[in-house]
Design brief:
heterodimer; A: about 290 residues; MetI-like fold; 12 helices; B: about 280 residues; mainly alpha; 2 domains; 13 helices
């Protein structure tokens, strides 16, 4: 067979799979978002409704705006905290050596843990009666000794952020260590010979050189933060009330628990739009090298 | 203070900070490991020393929990997902790596971008369709939707590995009269084997840990391990010793797999954006 035919035949199955499992559901979700789409009403998945689902979300649903707010604050906090802490840890671990290499290996473990399990383990740690972190924070910050973390809206949110940061620091650290390793050492040494302080070296050499990797890290983490579902579901299930209800959780509840699949699809598509922007920014970095 | 002393102090501070980090990173994991070997009563006290028991690991496999069935479902679903994804992805990755294709960049961008779409968007139409064709609560259904999250990773990761294989050997073999198919089978596949194994393990971990799809699509027959975690609730609250035992069964195999491919873990997750 000639290469000219073969090369297309080779990609065909993969393209079909991606189309059937990812592109089609996206298009079908878009179609559903313009329908009445209720499980309890036969035929409503084909019943055209126009923009009403979207209008409903924007004007009639405080819960939608709550989920937007929760997701936004959650994303800003987790991206900011995880990136800063991972950068600090990466700088600590970058020098290498046996000890630090061993630590890097340990760092892989939290990342291989299923997010659902991370949610469970943090619920365990913050159990008011016998949770380890609960006891720990109680000793460290006495006013927190008797609070029930997951029953308080703000503290429950804080626990969700903590669980996320805990789960993501290891991975981002490993990525940043890779980035640090690619900075030419002679530039840094030359600056040090000229008497530049560590802070100056960090600010004027490390950060600018690391900028592309940092950008990738921030985009990638933003995407995963915006999508957050598993941990929240296992940790607080959106509660107390709707204090930790992210957009994914809100969509899940409207679609699966209330059977309003048309409305859920429209909110889901509102979420796809920022994703496309972020994915576009990400691909810019991937293809920059080619 | 001399410069040398300063350096030593700075080293000491760094070591302390690293040790604190390890502690924070490992404590939740170790706590689960400990709870899994505690009996029901010891869990409810913050005990560090206790008589370990293997009882929990037996209980989770008995009625009413039947974790064995979930373990089987998780294993089958992850294996079949990988077995389908890797050959298909390898073919595509080879073509993307070696040939000029019309619309290649566009295809690669779209494949990459689908990875970032929220799972909850993908699953709504699948739920409707599976309900109509009777695929709800089946392992086949789960495999199909898992392909949505695994394929982009597999294609990008394997393309990265094949890009790294020098093209000269292939060209020499072609000059000697080998066909393209023979070249792929006799030269590319053996050389890419470690990469394919790495990608396979990576996809296995993703499929194994997958939560949202299984939560929505399964309720009884095809329930996987992560969803099984929700079982360990009783009227008096969560059964933490059993939850922990189940947690170990979920995470320990993944820890081992992740350590095997640790060199490529970062590369896999960033799909080549960071090397």
């Amino acid at each position: 067979m000639r290469d000219n035919t073969l090369k297309y035949l080779l990609v065909l199955p993969a393209i079909l799979v991606v189309f059937a499992t990812a592109i089609w559901p996206l298009i079908e979700s878009l179609r559903l978002s313009f329908t009445v789409g209720r499980f309890s009403v036969p035929g409503s998945l084909e019943q055209y409704l126009g923009w009403e689902n979207f209008a409903w979300a924007f004007t009639q649903e405080p819960a939608f705006w709550n989920a937007v707010r929760v997701t936004a604050i959650y994303t800003v906090l987790t991206v900011g905290l995880t990136t800063t802490m991972a950068l600090g840890l990466a700088l600590l671990l970058a020098p290498g050596g046996k000890f630090r290499a061993g630590v890097q290996t340990i760092l892989i473990l939290p990342f291989a843990m299923s997010p659902a399990l991370i949610g469970v383990s943090f619920r365990f740690m913050f159990n008011p009666e016998f949770g380890l972190f609960d006891a720990f924070f109680g000793v460290l910050i006495p006013p927190l000794a008797d609070v029930s973390w997951l029953a308080d809206p703000i503290l429950a949110f804080a626990v969700c952020v903590m669980a996320d940061v805990w789960g993501w620091i290891p991975f981002l650290t490993l990525v940043l260590i890779g980035g640090l390793a690619s900075i030419p050492q002679d530039t840094i040494e030359a600056a040090q010979v000229d008497g530049a302080s560590n802070w100056r070296v960090f600010k004027d050499i490390t950060i600018p050189q690391l900028a592309p990797v940092l950008a990738v890290v921030i985009i990638l983490k933003s995407i995963f933060s915006l999508k957050t579902f598993d941990q929240i579901f296992m940790l607080t299930n959106g509660g107390p009330g709707t204090a930790t209800q992210t957009l994914s959780h809100y969509i899940y509840f409207n679609g699966m628990k209330y059977g309003q699949i048309g409305y859920a699809a429209s909110v889901a598509w509102l979420m796809v739009i920022p994703m496309i922007v972020l994915a576009y920014a990400y691909t810019k970095f991937v293809f920059r090298k080619d | 203070m001399t410069g040398k002393q300063k350096k030593q102090i700075s080293q000491a501070i760094q070591i302390v900070l690293i040790l604190i980090t390890i502690f924070v990173m490992l404590v939740p994991i170790l706590w689960i490991f400990m709870a899994a070997f505690k009996n029901h009563i010891d869990v409810f006290q913050l005990k560090l020393f206790f008589t370990p028991t293997l009882e929990n690991f037996g209980t989770v496999f008995e009625a009413p929990y039947h974790l064995g069935m979930k373990l089987w479902n998780s294993t089958i679903v992850a294996f079949v997902t990988v077995a389908l994804a890797i050959p298909i992805a390898t073919m595509a990755a080879y073509s993307f790596s070696r040939f000029r294709l019309r619309g290649k960049t566009a295809m690669l961008v779209v494949i990459l971008a689908t990875q970032f779409m929220p799972a909850v968007v993908i699953i709504l139409p699948f739920f409707v369709m599976f309900r109509d064709v009777g695929l709800l609560d089946t392992r086949i259904g789960l495999v199909l939707v898992n392909l949505a999250i695994v394929m982009p990773f597999a294609i990008w990761m394997i393309k990265g590995f094949i890009d790294g294989i020098p093209i000269d050997t292939e060209e020499a073999a072609m000059v000697d009269g080998s066909s393209r198919i023979m070249v792929i089978r006799n030269i590319v596949l053996p050389m890419a084997a470690p990469g394919l194994l790495t990608a396979g393990i990576f996809c296995f971990i993703i499929a194994w840990n997958e939560f949202l799809f299984a939560l929505i699509l399964t309720n009884k027959d095809a329930v996987t391990l992560p969803i099984g975690l929700a079982l360990f609730k009783a009227e008096e609250g969560d059964l933490w010793n059993l939850l922990s035992a189940a947690g170990i069964i979920i995470m320990l195999p993944m820890f081992i797999l992740a350590l095997i491919i640790r060199k490529y873990f970062v590369q896999g997750m960033t799909m080549g954006a960071v090397r």
